[in-house]
Amino acid sequence: MSGSDVQRADAVYEQLIARAGESWVEPRLDRTAKMLAYLDDPQRTYRVVHVTGTNGKTSTARMIESLIRAHGLRTGLFTSPHLVRFTERILIDGEPIADDAVSDAWNEIEPFISLVDEELAADGQNPLTFFELLTVLAFVACADAPVDVLVLEVGMGGAWDSTNTADGDVAVIGPVAMDHAARLGATREEIAEVKAGIIKPGARVVSAQQDAGVAAVLRRVAAEQGAQIAFEGADFALTDRKLAVGGQQVSFRGLAASYDEDYLPLFGRHQAANAALALAAVEALIGGGEQPIPDDLRAEGFGEATSPGRLELIGTEPTIVVDAAHNPHGARALVEALGESFDMDEWGVVLGVMADKDIAGIIGELATIATHVFATESDSERSASADEIADAAEERGLRPTVHPNVVDAMEAAREWAAEGEKRAVLVAGSIVLGGEAIALARVEGWKP
């Protein structure tokens, strides 16, 4: 790819981020739908697997995409946010979208942006946002590729998320827990109502295990839409898992068959549960839940699955692990996975959290393993201050140190880890922070 292609793609991103950012969310679908109508509805040119949930969306979506690609189908994957470069959000056949494809898609979209913005202004509404336009860009790029199936991760919630302008052939609902309460609802049931909005008439639905109240909401909405729903536990399940080098061996009871000892190169029980959900989703898509997935296709699909920024080893000597856990539910799963997968006595936690997250709840979960907290903040206007994070850590009986940015925090954490045996560094609390740590690790060569 030429330097000019990179520059043009970066220029597209600059135009996107000049708009209202991802922290600005308004429950509206009609403006995204209007843009797509001007473009002849590219999101209707391929099948769609739509993924929502509180935690595990990205990992589950990536496994679904890998399994579908193993079937010889051309795939698109739209996830958010990115770790290092925005092209990571749109994958075509498992690879970040090419820079020239970004600029080509933008050239198709750009003539209609001012038109829709003017219509919005006349109606007293705000202009198209970063995420609304990025969603349109992804839909156009996948149509241009073209792809057979798009695996589509919800940005926030479901019902009014801009991704919901697509009609999912399969709706995938991960665990529903408390998150974004100010926008999605004050109870799990209210949040489930929003997430259930991705269930379309006649679709297949697969859901992780849920609280009784959440399950009741999902069953009701599925029935209203004439959709067939399958739940983890009752209809499919993770039946066994064993530690293995670089990951784990997992066995499942799927919708169509039982599958024994597939290798999954990811750590943690939560990733094994995500794999069970992904497997059921692909069974539902490919064979309507009645066609088993052959051994060789599962081996290829799971074997090539990656989940950047999720229990990702980015450094050795000392060991440095990045995880995107950004709410208490995710932090709890992270702690369990660390204890199971890494033989360490002490963890130094480089912690940076967005201001709208449950900082105290996250620290409460991580406090069980954190020997030292290196409180910091990412380069984001949404980030809580390092001092705020340190204060919350002190309230949990920890002794944090304060660092103004990830470079200073990582330097201090690596020095701390090098001073003792069986010490390691964990970077957690924010996907943005994780991305900054990953970029720094690449530049400084922490992992040969």
Automatic annotation (TrEMBL):
<keyword id="KW-0460">Magnesium</keyword>
<dbReference type="GO" id="GO:0004326">
    <property type="term" value="F:tetrahydrofolylpolyglutamate synthase activity"/>
</dbReference>
<keyword id="KW-0436">Ligase</keyword>
<dbReference type="InterPro" id="IPR036565">
    <property type="entry name" value="Mur-like_cat_sf"/>
</dbReference>
<dbReference type="GO" id="GO:0008841">
    <property type="term" value="F:dihydrofolate synthase activity"/>
</dbReference>
<dbReference type="GO" id="GO:0005737">
    <property type="term" value="C:cytoplasm"/>
</dbReference>
<feature type="domain" description="Mur ligase central">
    <location>
        <begin position="51"/>
        <end position="282"/>
    </location>
</feature>
<dbReference type="Pfam" id="PF02875">
    <property type="entry name" value="Mur_ligase_C"/>
</dbReference>
<keyword id="KW-0547">Nucleotide-binding</keyword>
<keyword id="KW-0067">ATP-binding</keyword>
<dbReference type="InterPro" id="IPR036615">
    <property type="entry name" value="Mur_ligase_C_dom_sf"/>
</dbReference>
<dbReference type="InterPro" id="IPR001645">
    <property type="entry name" value="Folylpolyglutamate_synth"/>
</dbReference>
<feature type="domain" description="Mur ligase C-terminal">
    <location>
        <begin position="309"/>
        <end position="430"/>
    </location>
</feature>
<protein>
    <recommendedName>
        <fullName>tetrahydrofolate synthase</fullName>
        <ecNumber>6.3.2.17</ecNumber>
    </recommendedName>
</protein>
<dbReference type="InterPro" id="IPR018109">
    <property type="entry name" value="Folylpolyglutamate_synth_CS"/>
</dbReference>
<dbReference type="InterPro" id="IPR004101">
    <property type="entry name" value="Mur_ligase_C"/>
</dbReference>
<keyword id="KW-0479">Metal-binding</keyword>
<comment type="similarity">
    <text>Belongs to the folylpolyglutamate synthase family.</text>
</comment>
<dbReference type="Pfam" id="PF08245">
    <property type="entry name" value="Mur_ligase_M"/>
</dbReference>
<feature type="region of interest" description="Disordered">
    <location>
        <begin position="378"/>
        <end position="397"/>
    </location>
</feature>
<dbReference type="GO" id="GO:0046872">
    <property type="term" value="F:metal ion binding"/>
</dbReference>
<dbReference type="GO" id="GO:0005524">
    <property type="term" value="F:ATP binding"/>
</dbReference>
<dbReference type="InterPro" id="IPR013221">
    <property type="entry name" value="Mur_ligase_cen"/>
</dbReference>
